[in-house]
Design goal:
Blueprint lengths: L5 H8 L9 H5 L13 H28 L4 H26 L4 H29 L11 H27 L4 H5 L4
Helix pairs in contact: 3-4, 3-5, 3-6, 4-5, 5-6
Length: 182
């Protein structure tokens, strides 16, 4: 598969004129998913934001559903984690399927691209919420619930971004997704 479309790659890793990256980058725009060790923090942050979006949707929806059904903290947290993975994968799948890839291949790519990122994000996010005094007892109508959730998601972003940078630099994680962008 040839990767001649620089515009889509630019959305994920470009932070200035191409000459800032040198002529080799301009010639091999997608080299990052072949194991190029040098990956921009911007590219890693964008991959992390992508995962964070799915995780946040799943987390909030899980908490809303668990609360509405009167579930306990553990059942609600499990549902929130399941939904975070579901929505994280779904966002990636949407982009890959849009590129014309069959569902089975797209699903495998999404699993490879997002599993570690979402797992780290969920560990940090839920760890902050579980360890923060009073957070597990805060209700959706309580401002404390929302600011602790924001802090937890911010911590997950900060800690997961270097993980994504490391993975992309080795041709893993979201580097796998980039080859399907057109």
């Amino acid at each position: 598969m040839q990767h001649g479309h620089h515009d889509t790659h630019a959305e994920h890793a470009h932070h200035g004129p191409e000459h800032e990256h040198g002529p080799e980058h301009a010639h091999h725009a997608h080299e990052g998913h072949h194991g190029l060790g040098k990956v921009s923090w911007r590219m890693a942050a964008q991959a992390t934001l992508h995962c964070l979006t799915g995780c946040a949707i799943g987390e909030v929806l899980g908490m809303v559903i668990g609360t509405a059904l009167g579930w306990g903290n553990m059942q609600t947290m499990i549902l929130a984690i399941i939904l975070a993975f579901f929505f994280g994968y779904a966002l990636t799948l949407r982009g890959i399927l849009k590129a014309g890839v069959d569902f089975r291949t797209a699903f495998r790519v999404a699993l490879a691209a997002d599993t570690l990122s979402i797992a780290v994000m969920e560990l940090i996010d839920n760890g902050v919420i579980a360890l923060w005094p009073g957070a597990m007892d805060a209700h959706l109508s309580d401002p404390m619930f929302w600011w602790i959730l924001a802090i937890a998601l911010a911590a997950a972003f900060v800690i997961t971004t270097p993980v994504n940078k490391w993975m992309i630099g080795r041709g893993k994680g979201h580097a796998v997704v980039h080859q399907y962008h057109h």
